[in-house]
Amino acid sequence: MSGWNAMSYEGKNTLLRVVRTEAEQFFDLVDSEEAWEAPTGAGHWQVRDVVAHIADTTEAYFVAFDAARAHTEVPAAYGLPGMAKRVDEQALALRTVPRAELVERLRDDFDKIMEIFDALGPDEWGGLNVPHFYMGPLPAFFFPAFQLMDYGVHSWDVRQGTGRAHGLAGDAADLLVPFMFVLWQYTTGVNEPCELGIRITSGPNAGDTRVLVGTEGMSYQAGEVRDRSTVLEFDPGSFVLTAFGRSNSGTIRGDRAVADRYLNLFFRI
């Protein structure tokens, strides 16, 4: 379903619609004094730290798109292994900013970045390489997907901090499914050889994927997994939350030792 493939221009309108929906409900969740210093599902971060993190991240995208359009050189990518430590430092550095000021700043950032995304044409969506601070040059479509990760997954974090039962929005999870394979590919830590299948059981991006981990890292491709001794099955929401290290979910079919080895290969960002 091309409208649900955010890596293609046909998926642009769907992706931006869902980003806006997730952002609107995120602002509703965080913009109160009662919520501001509440715990979240993102480690030691409070709600205010999540807001600060998204502001810091979004503002880095302005620099990245300016550099891409001006064809200016940027420093080498920082790398993902150090990302968790650095984003934590960046977020905590904004703890003293008053709620109203920081929320207004993030709202302005969001409006500005969405103008940039709205203006991306069919050639730029996949053809404009934008330098991501941690990952290096990426096609432009990754950046609205990253915003969906921020507003969708961090909304889950805020709700998790309340202690109430909840879940991840279906549209957000469906769109993020293909990007979770990329996330795993970039965060493979220990390359212990293994091969298995991953099955997404529902949604427009449902299907089977063959995964191989070797000395060069992780690779994957769509395809039948009936010949795999181990298959991991996920619904879209469980897949996203597992890839982000928020939950240990999914169904293991076959060799548990292979599944355990695979699921523990990745470092968290």
Automatic annotation (TrEMBL):
Short name of any one Pfam family annotated for the protein: MDMPI_N
Q: Which domain of life is it from?
A: Bacteria
All residue ranges annotated as the Mycothiol-dependent maleylpyruvate isomerase metal-binding domain in the record = 20-159
Which InterPro entries does the entry link to? DinB/YfiT-like, Maleyloyr_isom, MDMPI_metal-binding
Q: What is this protein called?
A: Mycothiol-dependent maleylpyruvate isomerase metal-binding domain-containing protein
Q: What is the lineage of its organism?
A: Bacteria, Bacillati, Actinomycetota, Actinomycetes, Propionibacteriales
